[in-house]
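Cont'd.
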Amino acid sequence: MIESSLTDDSEYPSLLIVDDDLVFCEVLSKALTKRGFSISCAHTIEDALNLAEASTPEYAIVDLKLSSESGLVLVEKLRNLDPGTRIVMLTGYASIATAVEAIKLGATHYLAKPVDADEIMAAFERTVGEANIPISAHPLSVGRLEWEYIQRILTENDNNISVTARILNMHRRTLQRKLAKRPLRE
Amino acid sequence: MIESSLTDDSEYPSLLIVDDDLVFCEVLSKALTKRGFSISCAHTIEDALNLAEASTPEYAIVDLKLSSESGLVLVEKLRNLDPGTRIVMLTGYASIATAVEAIKLGATHYLAKPVDADEIMAAFERTVGEANIPISAHPLSVGRLEWEYIQRILTENDNNISVTARILNMHRRTLQRKLAKRPLRE
DNA sequence: CTCTACCTGAGACAATTTGTCGCATCGCCA
DNA sequence: TGGCGATGCGACAAATTGTCTCAGGTAGAG
């Protein structure tokens, strides 16, 4: 689908990333550019809407938690602009309730961070029912996923091990031990 | 086929409960009868379909885990019989991945057991948009994150446990055991 | 029909990893 | 200086995994 067709203005499918985490946008942007998308980024709902109104993107990646407002309203608006837009909702604070809402509002899929670009790709392809294209890549191993997640919560909490352990509902001693090990590669 | 129960002697809205837990069916049945529904129960997908084909219910409560098959296929079929049916999916093994799938297949809502009759009622009424969903304050626990991740990979792979275990680089036996446990609450 | 190749649920037992406690240090701060 | 919370680490029991092994079940090939 990389070169699905000779579309109107661009040879690459347009993809809008909306997330208030600048670093995350940056990284994702690079990874997806490499995969053949024409990327644009926005960090607020307003910016996102302006961009979308100027030219509606074919794909969109929206973070659930955008400053004050919820990314859910953006999903709805993008959908109204163009029902054909494929939207993946992304969030670091996943919950079933918001997932249900997101899908009802028209999101194509809903993923919890951390995710990698391949998983997002897979989410776009995904259709209801079954039959997915060969899920090519190697998703992160559970160990790796855990590591990344812990690191995120840890930095969000000023590297306070005790607090992080409480939030993650795990014992401080255990967290210590996990941190002592090096991040498994793969 | 849009409407039913024209000549049916029942003046109450019909509601089909599908769950392989007999006790659960019994309890729920009583509670909902008291609330003014005309209840029928099924414990397998086949029974459920037979009942639904005989007279399509206006409401349905479907358990995700029905013996071997997934309740998801039933949701789809009920939907095909009558797109107006309001379906609530219920499960003791809730995950974002299955919630997403259920909603895409046309479920009205998705709830995690344990639930009480009032919650189910509310779920039937519910429409998109208005819900005041608190964007969860706290991140998932590592255990929960792992559960969600496993569920996701699992549904992406057609619920094939062996394949999922290989992809996740974990032993099949271990995956079996993890799946046997309920997702941790919180 | 039989054989093959997988997938699945489960029991058993050892190898590891966690859960818990306890204790000694430190940095902060009133 | 005492109270409070964070941190590193030893030790031992409790719980979880890694492995192996069986015994079905199913779908396709020959």
